[in-house]
Amino acid sequence: MGMTGIEIFKLLPKTNCGECGVSTCLAFAMNLAAGKAELASCPYVSEEAKKILAEQSAPPIRTVVIGTGNYATKVGGELVQFRHEKTFNNPTGLGCVISTDESDASIEGKLNRFKALQFERVGITMRPEFIAIQDKTNDPAKYKAFVEKIMGLTDAALILVSPNPDVMEAALSVAKDRKPLIYAVTMKNGPKMAPIAKKYECPVAIRSDGTLDTAMKITQNLTKMEIKDIVIDTGVRDLKTAFTHSVQIRRAALVDRQRALGFPTIVFANEMASTPEEEAIVAATFIAKYGGIVLLSDLQPHFVYPLLLQRLNIFTDPQRPMTAEPGVYPINNPNENSPILVTCNFSLTYFIVSGEIESSRQPAWLVVKDTEGLSVMTAWAAGKFSGEDVGAWIKKCGVLDKVKHKSVVIPGYAAAISGELEEELSGYNVVVGPREASQITKFLKAFTPQ
Tell me: the pLDDT tens digits for 128-139? Predict the structure, then answer.
């Protein structure tokens, strides 16, 4: 929250009723300032105070939701300029542009590639989210029919692209329930396009004339109409200037608290490059530097997969390790004679180890212990992968009831816990497995539990 506890206290009723869960309004104000309480906990706060506090507590860059269902996508909502300061919150949305003048074969190919681009990485599904439907007909009836056609073929979050208010309204009459992004309001069409955005209650993108001053004027006009879900396109199509604007917008919103620029951005990479390779470079630039949505001319897997992976890396919380759920994982249909292997719950370790076991085609029970997202070596050094703890977890998780043998395999990097683990698991043989996951296949093919 942007206000101090004392500033918040001045807006509270000062009844000290205690109904919020703390004894005084001052204590409640301090909790609000620290983010440890919700304003809704106070039953007597005035509507005026609610409005002021809501504005002050809102992220400096507004969170905008586009689309519905599984493809509802949040953009914006960022709180920091640099990932190491805290984390980035809402990953850059990726998509492609489909135009009304494209052939049926081209449209079918793009939609098929969109649907097929589903990748699993450390337990997370990576995929593009957006289809931008660009009008080249300037005919309301034809564009409406085209939008209906695309809607019947995909559940993607939609971006409707037309500068003509009549064409846009025709499309929204059938697409409004999908909460598409309306692209775009300009200084020229604003008087007609803005009321349409308000009428259909859909998020709206603005397109400036290449300057931030004009972008600010348009967003200010929209906010005066109580249209708050806005996405910014500065209108620039050369990489250097667009990159500069992207950085300036982020800094203006976060550092200077410039509300008129406190919105996510949209980048048309397809209009900034002449080849798919160049488009990928443009997209990679704005995934790294503050693009809210990036659109390509097509979604070729060999270009999109690296972009999705880059996005995953950038928008992963650096202060929170990625983890797998602790438990027992049966791999390759194990039975009572299959070996038991133990590992940590650091996602990358889990997926590498489980993948190697799967590829070996050898049935096994994989026991994943909670190490708070630390790797085996780090967890052992931190005392979170000791023989006592691992033994207690093996007994608790129930895997010993699934087998007849008396063998447990631990990672090679945890060889130091073997003696302590044998004491914890009385009567069991603790086997030190490979240090590297790449050796698991060879190990399993030669190993027979005793």
Answer: 999 999 999 999
